[in-house]
Amino acid sequence: MAMTPNKILIHKIERDDKRYPRRLMDLFDPPDCLYITGDLELLRKPMLAIVGARNASAQGLKNAYLFAQFIATAGATVISGLARGIDGSAHRAALGTKASTVAVCGTGLDITYPKEHGHLAHAIRTRGLVISELPPGVGPKAFHFPRRNRIIAALSLGVLVIEAAEKSGSLITARIAAELGREVFALPGPIDDPLFAGCHQLIQQGAKLVRNPKDVLEELTFP
């Protein structure tokens, strides 16, 4: 346990710690340790990942909010990557529920990326949980984020993709989730909208097409 200069209390949890999430051991390369700040009890809760485009449409942001609010109210902790767009909308919706939210970061926990999510990150630290495999002081690098996505996929019972372009990082999360035996859900959209090309690709590959949050709850049960 350590306190950063900006007074963030960070717990370091190694693989042999009983608090280390066993679901991460499904990965072929589970993190050697996790840096965590917030409510550690959330590690024991069932999680659903909600991910999608950073440059999401207004309707996409609304859908992410509505799905996250409904799913969290049903008992699942919403997990996402603190990115712009869909991630941020899902986190904000879940913060207002008892289930709360978990953010997995691609930086050390003393650095907020993107910077405009400073208030959101603070709210999640206060009422949810923030996780990284990177130690304090490590800033954002492009290769950090695909590795972050594998943690999101492994911790979740399923991954819901709201909007995703053909080469979206969200597809990495969905692919890893499928490889790990997690459920994958995708929201369809207009066939000529590039923001849904990734979602349609996932559906072609066997992801469950969802039209509303109840479609997710038909596949997953949250105590």
From TrEMBL:
Coiled-coil ranges from the UniProt annotation: none
Q: What residue stretches are annotated with the Smf/DprA SLOG domain?
A: 14-220
Question: Which GO biological process categories is it annotated with?
Answer: DNA-mediated transformation
Q: Which domain of life is it from?
A: Bacteria
InterPro entries the UniProt entry points to: DprA, DrpA_SLOG
Q: Which Gene3D superfamilies match?
A: 3.40.50.450
NCBIfam families hit by this protein: dprA (TIGR00732)
The similarity annotation says: Belongs to the DprA/Smf family.
The protein depicted here goes by the name DNA protecting protein DprA
